[in-house]
Amino acid sequence: MEPGPLTAGTVRPGGRTAKVRTAVLRAAQDELVERGFHRLTMEQVAGRAGIGKTTIYRRWGTRARLVTDLMGELAARSFPPPGTDAGSIEDVLLANARSVLAAINDPHFGATLQAVIAAATSDEGAAAALHAFYDRRITEWAKVVDAAVEGGELPPGTDGAELVRAVSAPLYYRLMVLRQPVDETTAARSAARALIAARAGAFVAC
């Protein structure tokens, strides 16, 4: 299941430094959900976390770097891809679609994603944070797809990362552009259509 709000113990242990980071990232996520990226301030995060703002500025420096750290932590805790022995490519792509579905429909995590996605259209710092999040997720899922290519389930040269993107793109389009609900049926159709295209060679790297 995708991560909801950060809570004590969800970030790797490591003494006071780790506890401070947990408190700050939790506060940053809450502020992001409530206020959006552009109205998030280091002072508000400091007050919410109960941490001196000088500590936050010294460690993160800018709002963009703080949100990038938050998104990196969420990526590390988000729904992991199955192993390379996860079954058929149909199973893998459906699992990927369902992981996206879980992410965007989670009340807190989904709201966090939407806030950063919206900000990324006009802010380079937010865009960098979003890219870091998705680069990590796509890279991990692409490894599983690449294993299916090596096993002969898809044409040689199929770009696993592009196929993973093709599964999730329609779901985010519905959510962010059309503002339509995304459900299990939508996720399954997206995975099935991407698979048809992949088998036809649409994702073979040129």
From TrEMBL:
Record feature DNA-binding region, as residue ranges: 41-60
A Pfam family assignment: TetR_N
Keyword Transmembrane attached: no
UniProt key word Membrane: no
UniProt keyword list: DNA-binding, Transcription, Transcription regulation
Record PROSITE patterns: HTH_TETR_2
Chain ranges of the HTH tetR-type domain: 18-78
PANTHER family from the UniProt entry: HTH-TYPE TRANSCRIPTIONAL REGULATOR RUTR (PTHR30055), TETR-FAMILY TRANSCRIPTIONAL REGULATOR (PTHR30055:SF148)
Protein name: TetR/AcrR family transcriptional regulator
Organism field: Nonomuraea corallina
